[in-house]
Amino acid sequence: MAVGPTSPLTHDSRIIVVGGAGTIGSSTALHLCRRGYKNVLILDVYGFPSDRAVYGPSQSAGGSDLNKIIGSSNSGTRAEITDMTMDMWRNDPVFSEHYHEVGELSAAGEPEHIASLRVSYEAKLKHPIKSKEVEWLGTREEIVKRCPHLAKASIDGWQGIWNFKAGWGAANDAVDSVGRELKRFGVNMVFGQSGTFERPMIDPVSKRCVGVIAKDGSRYEADRVVMATGAWSPSLIDLKGQCVSKCWIVAHLELSAEEAARYRSIPVVYNEEVGFCFEPRLIKDYEPGKDRWIIKLCDEFPGYTRFMESQPFGAERPVKVSVPRSHSAHPTDTVPDEGMKRLRRVVEVMLPEFAQREFVKSYMCWCTDTADAEWLFCQHPDHPGLFLATGDSGHSFVTLPSVGHQVCDLLEGTAPADRMRKWAWRPGQGDPNHTGRGGPDPLDLGDLEGWAHGDDERAE
To answer: Hey, which end of the chain has fewer CB within 10 Å, N or C?
Structure first.
């Protein structure tokens, strides 16, 4: 392969999407195909579409999940692409079947959090479309009117935003739908050790990235390499501290068919001091021969890290980075004891009818945060042809239909200049405009008990 400056893209250019079975990677591959690129290769650890990953023990990418909240955003690039995103959720046949517009209550009980929600509400009122989709709920009675299932819940003092043009996405199903569409396009996909990233191929003279070397030694040449590797990104490429991988905790609560009938089509309820939950889903063959009605719920907290010594590509020596431990590789892992108490609180507050019921599953879901919650979408400053598409900050799944459009604009050099500045390589920049997650620092899993039931050195 020729060396030198990166050549212009053509529809015949060889493009590798590492992590292409995840949210950002699959969306990128889809938009590349829709723009006419004919030579796209997906590399990933686990098979895609995964079909049953969410129902069994496999849990790797953040999109391998039962439900994710879907709705408009007020912040950053996600706000700029809200109209495109929601239009695709409602009308694009790849996504529309998997979007359920049941409405969302975003609420709080603490005065400072209510004030923050009010600011968000006022911002939505200035938007020509969002202003017609929201309503302020200032009393318990108003909340129960929109969310009758909360009639016996502990919601005294709650206020918040009712958005009737929001809801939830069937996460794993939607990502699998992208996978089936990519197969229809004829996209080549490699999984297992042959699809697991080891390091980029770098031309020794030009320093240009010319492909990928996999764990088993397989070599794949390319004109562009896109690292859409989610929470694994900081342990694969030295990002100079720009991303920190964190996990949040999830639990599944099983309902009988009669109980599920009473909770069907309830709105998504999110409270930033407690957590959030969804309507029940009927999961076919959750276990062999057994269908189950499952409610997914999460608490809300700063997340957990798992700092270890690692030497990602580009680092001169081992560095401390937060390294994910996936449920796919460690299916017996659950959640820390202290986190389980918060998950129980979500049930006690929002679903008191089930306060004594045990969870049928609990696990940790990983993402990687940037300080300012904007994506890290840029070409590596030292290696032309190596592109980073990471830094989801817990918000990328809502943009599954449209995020790949943004990555394609980056690859083609057509992204607006202001977005390029937001997404740029920016070590040490921090969060000057206070748009990031904020709050206290996350606890580290190595200091917590109860979650690892296998061989993790941080838990021994």
So the answer is: C
Q: What pLDDT, in 10s, does the model give residues 79-98?
A: 899 999 999 999 999 999 99
How far is 452 from 366, CA to CA, in rounded Å? 15
Q: 291, 253, 267, 265: which is closest to 103 by C-alpha?
A: 267
pTM assigned to the model: 0.94
Q: What is the pLDDT of residue 5?
A: 57
The continuous run of DSSP H or E covering 190 comes out as: strand 188-190
Q: Which residues contact 290 (CB under 8 A, 6 or more apart)?
A: none
- The answer to whether the bond into 312 is cis (omega within 30° of 0) is no
Contact indicator for 421, 410 with CB cutoff of 8 Å: no
d(CA 206, CA 459): 43
Q: What pLDDT is recorded for position 394?
A: 85
Q: Give the torsion sign (CA, 433, 437, 439, 440).
A: negative
Q: Give the dihedral sign, CA 400/402/407/408.
A: positive
- Distance, CA of 364 to CA of 248 (rounded, Å): 5
DSSP classification of residue 38: -
Q: What is the dihedral of CA 60, 64, 68, 70, to 10 degrees?
A: 110
